[in-house]
Specification:
The chain has 99 residues and is α+β, with helices and mostly antiparallel strands. The chain has one domain (13-98). Helix content is 53%, strand content 14%. The chain contains 4 helices and 3 strands; from the N terminus they run H-H-H-E-E-E-H. Helix 2 crosses helix 4 (82-98) and helix 3 (34-49) packs across helix 4 (82-98). The radius of gyration is 13 Å and the shape is globular.
Length: 99
């Protein structure tokens, strides 16, 4: 059973298990095409495991930069477009897992 299967959706990921969740997520999705990884990251964030901030969807009540921002399992990625943010998140996540 993967770490993701253990934690129920909508729960915050404690820092002490975030590395396990990150490794499981990358094992399942890390080598997929950018568009598939984008969907997986978005769904995982919507399920409560991280944040996806799209400036086009933010109103006055949700401040954001002009960039797409991803924060998932202790790893952040930013980009001018969703695909760029996903690529940057993947690069950072792979470095974290390799460390």
């Amino acid at each position: 059973m993967t770490a993701l299967a253990v934690l129920s959706a909508g729960s915050l990921v404690p820092p002490e298990v975030a590395a396990d969740f990150l490794a499981d997520f990358l094992a399942a999705h890390g080598d997929k095409p950018d568009s598939d990884l984008l969907q997986a990251i978005r769904q995982t964030c919507e399920d409560g495991f991280g944040w996806w901030i799209d400036p086009e969807l933010c109103g006055l009540d949700r401040p954001a930069t002009h960039m797409v921002e991803i924060a998932l399992f202790g790893v952040s990625g930013f980009g001018m477009a969703p695909i760029e943010a996903v690529r940057n998140w993947r690069a950072a996540a792979l470095r974290v897992v390799a460390a």
